[in-house]
Amino acid sequence: MTPPRKLHIKSYGCQMNVYDAQRMVDTLQPEGFVETASAEDADLVILNTCHIREKASEKVYSELGRLRLAKDEAARGGRTMRIAVAGCVAQAEGEEIVARAPVVDIVVGPQSYHHLPDLLKRAGGGERAIATEFPADDKFGYLAKPKPETIRARGVSAFVTVQEGCDKFCTFCVVPYTRGSEMSRPVGRIVDEIRDLTENGVREITLIGQNVNAYHGEGPDGRSWTLGRLLYRLAEIPGLARIRYSTSHPNDVDDSLIAAHRDLPALMPFIHLPVQSGSDRILAAMNRKHRAIDYHKVIDRFRAARQDIAFSSDFIVGFPGETEEDFRATLALVAQIGYAAAYSFKYSPRPGTPAAEIRETVSLSEMDARLERLQALIDSQQSAFNKAAIGTVVDVLFERPARNPGQIVGRTAYLQPAHVMASPDIIGQVLPIRIDSLERYSLLGELASPAAPQNTQAAASPVIIGA
Ligand code: 5AD
Ligand code: SF4
């Protein structure tokens, strides 16, 4: 028997890449690959890249420099190490990578991962193999069916792709170019995948897509289903305790999604809803097609449907032409909404996007200063949100043993990590936890009712726990 070949995947960027990495593992397993934690002893190293900001894509080239040494070292030991660049940098800069980095054997875009075995064979024949086409018919062809062992290795919480690509064309963003136009997976395929996952111990799923609430997959009735309708169907799957979805666009929040939040206890009351800026002038220049007031109205509709709902968001500071007044409008929006968490970034011009052509720019020092001011405000909101949990009882889905011996870590509805001293038996269960204290971003507490934990959970959620 030939010994297994070793595969190392390093992922950058968004959840979609984390998910895709798992799919690449699933695709390469039948080829005799097993995962290894170290790039140095791998036979195949895949850099699963992100192109969203300049910093993210430059990382690839510095990593390739390091890998060149490892590849040379392997060759001296008589071993062939192959190097592949996957993800959005591969999609956007395929030819350039091949020209700039002779160390690379394979360049593979996000819609071509099912071709990896074939690309490897071609690389074995001495070719430098590139696959970056967008398939016209089945964008989800790369979604090989995972084996139960792989699913179990994923643990309690898993991502499921329901939609890919984006047609919004925000002027700063590369996603419509790297991930292509919007496409949704059919309902039946999603339901089957989630059923497989729950039968193998997964209790929480996060539906992912670049623009997940633009979902319009074909339902079993042959009609186009909205995300809201899909969520009602998924909530019926036995054993599924929690459902999340990310990332959403404020313009695609329809009434079925709001109703799902009102009606489905398994749908977590925590929504990532990027707004990018609080200034109408900048929102228009970004081609967001909504104003600050429209965003506020969307937030109000969610809040009216479910009182305990909380939000996170993405912000860009220093978009070309952003004045102090525009920036203050962003601070004002944050102050008005009150976020549980948020990400903020300095604007990074991306080649090929319309905003990269705008001549007016904001100086780097001004961008730094604005980022600091915005992050200070967001941090204070996040700490206040976390502190408010102290002294309350919250449901936690337990995921794995923590670093501290005897502790088990899980997450609250709002994705706050929560630690308790308990038996590993609680992994996979949603249990009420009395929160005692906060350590940085982590909540510490104890089981609220160890004698009858399952009952309390059942009251909070209609799904069957521990099935
Ligand atoms: N510069 C800075 N931030 C960006 N993002 C997307 N493109 C850029 C860019 N060119 C941010 C947006 C988006 C998040 C995923 O990354 O805030 O919501
Ligand atoms: Fe990019 Fe999101 Fe805008 Fe689509 S909606 S172009 S993914 S920022």
Helix fraction, binned, reads 25-40%
Content-based structural category: alpha/beta
Strand order of the largest sheet: 2-1-3-4-5-6
Superfamily (CATH H level) name of the largest domain:
tm_1862 like domain
Q: Could you name the ranges where pLDDT drops below 50 across 5 or more consecutive residues?
A: 451-467
Oligomer: single chain
Supply Rg.
23 Å
Average of pLDDT: 91
N- to C-terminal separation? 39 Å
CATH hierarchy class name of the largest domain: Alpha Beta
Bulk shape: globular
The CATH topology of the largest domain is given as pyruvate-formate lyase- activating enzyme
Number of strands: 19
CATH architecture of the largest domain: Alpha-Beta Horseshoe
Identify the bound ligands: 5'-deoxyadenosine, iron/sulfur cluster
Strand content: 15-25%
Enumerate how many helices there are, as a single number: 14
Q: Number of domains in the coordinates?
A: 3
- Major sheet characteristics: 6 strands, parallel
Layout of helices and strands:
Layout: E1 5-11, H1 15-28, E2 33-35, E3 44-49, H2 54-76, E4 82-86, H3 87-100, E5 106-108, H4 116-124, E6 129-131, H5 148-154, E7 157-161, E8 163-164, H6 175-178, E9 183-184, H7 187-199, E10 204-208, H8 227-234, E11 242-246, H9 255-263, E12 270-272, H10 280-285, H11 292-305, E13 310-317, H12 324-337, E14 341-346, H13 364-387, E15 393-401, E16 407-411, E17 417-421, E18 430-439, E19 442-447, H14 453-460
Parallel strand pairs: 1-2, 1-3, 3-4, 4-5, 5-6, 7-10, 10-11, 12-13, 13-14, 17-19
Antiparallel strand pairs: 8-9, 15-16, 15-18, 16-17, 18-19
Helix pairs in contact: 8-9, 12-13
5'-deoxyadenosine is lined by residues 52-53, 172-173, 274, 276, 314, 316, 345, 347-348, 350.
